[in-house]
Design goal:
One of its GO terms (molecular function) is metallopeptidase activity. It is built from six helices and ten strands; from the N terminus they run E-E-E-H-H-E-E-E-E-H-E-E-E-H-H-H. 38% of the residues lie in helices and 21% in strands.
Length: 229
Amino acid sequence: MELEFAYSIQRSVKRRKLTITVERDRSVVVHAPVGCSDEQIEKVVTAKRQWIYEKIGHPQKYQDLPHAPGKELVSGESALYLGRQYRIEIVNSGFKEIRFEQRFLIPDSPLDKRAEALRNWYIQRAKEKIVPRVLQHARQLGVNVSKVKIADNRYRWGSCTMNDNVNFNWRLIKAPMFVIDYVIVHELAHLLEANHTPSFWNIVRAQAPTMDKAKNWLKENGQILEQSI
């Protein structure tokens, strides 16, 4: 049977079973063990096609923005941080790194250097604020986390591995804390329940009672987090 969607394959020597994910941009990715042939993968994908169609059509998957935002890192614009927009000021005061004083004070430099500086600032804040929250929620859930990593997974907010490592997209630092907490709990709950069963969602809701609000926020604002400002 001919499929109406394309999919990519990522093989890993550490992977023991085949899984399929539909990313937020509607791309379909098959994660497979090294020894899994293309024919075996195609058979599984075909068998799961109805589930994949449903995921591709899910309302939380991205729609293209109707117009490019057109924002630049210049004085008078604003940038997101923890769910709020803060004014940007380009300054010539001699310091080399971004300062945050209820507004972004960004050293004057070429636009690409300003974007790089803001990205680095976000990543550092994500390490400072997200990692401790992960450890706190892990203690409350009674799960052991081997390593917490702030990553650059553009189409995934968080992920966990078979080795009990958890990864979180640095762009989450732009979202409100209740959204960050929901994503953290979502990934940690997978250490207790691998699949999205009713039991899994009960765990998440108990630890993150604003789960529905957070999911709606990501649905409405998720694509904005991926913009540079």
